[in-house]
Amino acid sequence: MASTQALINRQWILAKRPEGAVKPTDFIFNKGELPVPGDGDVLVRSLYFGYDASQRIWLTEDGGYMPSIQIGESMRAVGIGQVIESCDPDYATGDLVEGFMSWQDYLIVRNDGPMPLRKLPKANFPLSWNLGIFGVGGLTAYFGVVDGLRVQPGDTVVISAATGATGSLAGAIARALGAQKVIGIAGGADKCQWIVDNAGYDAAIDYKNEDIGERLQELCPQGVNAYFDNVGGDMLDTLLLHMAPEGRVLICGAMSSGYTDVKLQGPSNYMRICTHKLTVRGMHLFFYKDEIPAAAAQLAAWVEEGKLHVEENIHEGFEKAPGLLPTIFSGKQPGKLILKVANAS
Ligand SMILES: NC(=O)c1ccc[n+]([C@@H]2O[C@H](COP(=O)([O-])OP(=O)(O)OC[C@H]3O[C@@H](n4cnc5c(N)ncnc54)[C@H](OP(=O)(O)O)[C@@H]3O)[C@@H](O)[C@H]2O)c1
């Protein structure tokens, strides 16, 4: 290993708190010092950064379910890195790990955060899959469909943000559990075609060009048994009007809000929960951290059986980190958005 003293630590630092949609100019490039690990710390070199809508929540003054990112700090991201030096006996130099990182070449990570710092096994799939199908999106899809919605054989299931890292897997997972009909909601004809051709959906609704209520009436006249809500807002309100009696709704995300604030307006059709005996559940991946290995094994088995299609949208180059973030909210391509910044040694 080269002397760490000689290495430059490129960083993208939060320069100002975004107003409205996040912009690349909210960040500034910096050449920082290499951090020195203390007790329990692991010094990691960044290899891949994943992109998640919740990064926008962490940029609010409140921060939501994580501490707010402060001006002058490097931008937090879920990433994959390689251990350079370890002061935690559970990690060794050379290990590949996945967990909360930030937009810099070298950083300290620890295993005492809200999610485990996962040591990645040598595997016969690409390393980047640990951010997608075996990362936030895939695991959220798995726990959301299996536990949150408890999809049953015969169910009619609707999933919003169906081309996203989560939605691009949730439809096929619902199908693997025996759902009778799986309908995805996506923006634009091409994305609607993509989910039907690639992601296990029977039909798609184009939320940008079609009337969602009318299409739901056509596609599921008996009502929706399970709705995986990644979008909130008007879309959730419309879905509430189309749920079957005793239907289940999973609140997973609220893309329509842009996550510019933690305070959101709830649905106005909520009395449907009462009149149709609906069950509305929330989920957060943090709740399932102890069940991740078993979930990842099941996801791997489904991939092996050809039941899940893995879609990645990989870019390369540290300099691109801030420019990709806004695309999460403005029409990114299907699948998990990932930035590769270095090769593993
Ligand atoms: N609860 C949890 O633990 C947890 C974990 C992971 C993710 N999530 C949530 O799951 C949701 C999806 O995240 P992801 O990582 O799967 O997606 P992603 O890969 O970041 O892609 C974003 C998705 O959102 C859709 N979208 C963006 N703006 C929209 C709008 N105004 N109306 C409708 N759809 C919109 C995009 O579809 P189009 O291109 O078709 O617009 C795209 O499919 C987010 O709300 C996220 O916060 C929750």
UniProtKB/TrEMBL annotation:
It comes from the Bacteria. Residues 10-114 form the Oxidoreductase N-terminal domain. Gene3D superfamilies: Medium-chain alcohol dehydrogenases, catalytic domain (3.90.180.10), NAD(P)-binding Rossmann-like Domain (3.40.50.720). InterPro entries: ADH-like_C (IPR013149), ADH_N_2 (IPR041694), GroES-like_sf (IPR011032), MDR_fam (IPR045010), NAD(P)-bd_dom_sf (IPR036291). Keywords: Oxidoreductase. Residues 166-298 form the Alcohol dehydrogenase-like C-terminal domain. This is NADP-dependent oxidoreductase. The lineage of its organism: Bacteria, Pseudomonadati, Pseudomonadota, Gammaproteobacteria, Oceanospirillales.
